[in-house]
Amino acid sequence: MKKLNHFSHPHPLVLVEEEMDWISITYYCSACHRRVEGSSYNCSECDFCLHKSCAQLPREINHPFHPHHPLILCEEDTDQVRNCFFYHCSSCEFVLHIRCALPPNLSTENFRCALLPNFITGDFPKLKHFSHQHSLFFIQNHYIEPQNLSCSACKEPISGPVYCCFDCFFFLHQKCFELTLEINHLSHRKHSLTLLPKPPPHPEKCSCHLCTKAYKGFIYYCSLCEFGLMIKYTFSDHKVIKNKHHEHPFTLVARSSVPFICDACGTNGDYCIPYVCTTCDILVHKDCTSVPRSILITRHDHPVFHIHFLEEKEVKKRDCRICHDEINTVYGCYHCPGCDYFVHLYCAMDKHIFIQEFEMTNENQNLNQMNLGWLSGEPSITRVLKEKKIRGEVIAIEIEHFNHQCKLILCDDVKDEKCCDGCGRSISTSFYCCVECNYILHKRCAESPKKTRHWSCKGTLTLVPYTHFKCVFCCLYCRGLGYTSDVSGRICCIPCFLIPDAFTTQGHGHLVFFLSQN
Questions:
Q1: Rg of the chain, C-alpha, whole Å
Q2: What's the pLDDT at 481?
Q3: I want to staple 373 with a disulfide (CB 3.0 to 4.6 A). Which of 118, 301, 434, 461 is the partner?
Q4: Which contiguous run of DSSP H or E holds residue 497?
Q5: Contact criterion met (CB below 8 Å) for 171 and 152
Q6: Contact 61/71 with Cβ under 8 angstroms?
Q7: Residues 308, 265: contact at Cβ < 8 Å?
Q8: Helix, strand or coil, per DSSP, at residue 314
Q9: Helix locations, 312-410, DSSP H
Q10: Is the Cβ–Cβ distance between 373 and 296 less than 8 Å?
């Protein structure tokens, strides 16, 4: 149990890591007088309470609103401040509430990240910038953690010297502040590009011509051609891209509006500027320069590997095994060489399908041993008591199951109409039954894994007994055993779990496949 002796309170304070939502009383922080949410320090002897971040505020800071003297954290009531901690300069009688001294758009939990001892230091010169109505302070040194704030120009995390407006909490990197108002860029040689703090409104092609993404922050723009670039792509480090995903560097093609088809993903590259690998002779979108070489996806049991084209001795039609549209193997896609399995890059990288990058090592190079399948996992049958060889196949005829305390015996004789205690459906094939009670499981239900993966989700599914639940796939109310996702909490019944993402059926001449509506 972590304790803190705080200067503002005579009793020790105990850290409570979780939000106290089980208590009906609302607590307010004695420092900022806001409602206590999340981690907090509490006094067990009285009602004194501090947010964890407020308890860790520095006793002394330098602040641009009062650069001549340090400010001291105080907690006594004064004529100026009541019921709230504040920063105070006794020489000048200068006072700032902690809410005003701290960045207003940071959450309470992140206050500590922005205000460490000597939060900001320097002489704080003030300068005007064409993009903002107020003067900006120049801060040479600061301790703002990068993930908390971003530059208003390039939208990258704050780091290094910055210019800022504390009235609006407007930030500019020093290099973004010093950007020239007009540039000539190799990707648009007809006209110069003008720096704009906001993109102009127009109905079509309202996106960066390099990455094709919607404009964010400042842009360099040609109004005659409606050609624009986000400013971060005019920096020298974006002309050549080196990363772990490709063995050679990619170089920006210094031409605009070059029609091409991306060799990495196979989609049209009109209205954007490509990158080229001169060694491999391939043109790709900027985002496709960092396509992972191998990944894990929900829809396949093995890792899939990226190729820029497929060498084949005979012409053969390849369909994506996710969307089932044709794949042009002249261009890039993902495939599993052991299974002849192909998917479009954009299908494999869908947020509902992509799991993670996969790194090949000496231990996992044998693809046949890398079964990550959705029907593998921790078994439901905890123990096989007796086996029998039937038509050349070894069958478990007596088992113990995690959901029943007695042994279960395999039966084929269905005399009465009975229902499975696993899926709730009627018994018509081989089943396991208990000789001491009426507990019955289909053979397929008894053999379904207790903990496993599934093609429909990224997380782990666990087989759990329920009195009733609604299946996420068939939307029927079921009883018995259901698979529960550790990510979404959604439940599916065993029959729906056993259906693959694509299959053929006698009642239909074409392939039937799952289509997500997300």
A1: 32
A2: 93
A3: 301
A4: helix 494-497
A5: yes
A6: yes
A7: no
A8: coil
A9: 345-348
A10: no
Is 394 strand, coil or helix?
A: strand
Contact in structure between 208 and 229 (CB atoms under 8 Å): yes
- Name the pTM for this structure: 0.61
- From the CB of residue 39, how many other CB atoms can be counted at a distance below 10 Å? 16
Q: Of 289, 158, 137, 288, which Cα lies nearest the Cα of 217?
A: 158
- CB–CB of 397/375 below 8 Å? no
Angle at 34 between CA 33 and CA 37, to 5 degrees: 135
Half-sphere exposure of 165 (CA within 13 A, CB side): 14
- Residue among 258, 193, 190 nearest 222 (CA): 193
Secondary structure of residue 425 in the 3-state scheme: coil
- From the list 245, 284, 278, the residue with the least C-alpha distance to 266 is 284
Extract the tokens encoding 398.
């007596």
Q: Is 93 exposed, middle or buried (0-12, 13-18, 19+ CB in 10 A)?
A: exposed
Q: How confident is the model at residue 374 (pLDDT cuts 50, 70, 90)?
A: very low
Identify the bridge partners of residue 465 per DSSP, sorted by sequence position. 481
Tally of residues, the chain: 518
Q: Cβ distance 183 to 120 under 8 Å?
A: no
Per-position DSSP letters for 142-186, written without gaps between them? E---GGG-B-TTT-PBP-SSEEEETTTTEEEEHHHHT--SEEEET
Write out the DSSP string of 20-41: -TT-SSPPB-TTT-PBP-SSEE
pLDDT, tens digit (0-9, with 9 covering 90-100), for 316-368: 888 898 888 999 888 999 999 888 899 999 999 988 889 888 887 655 555 54
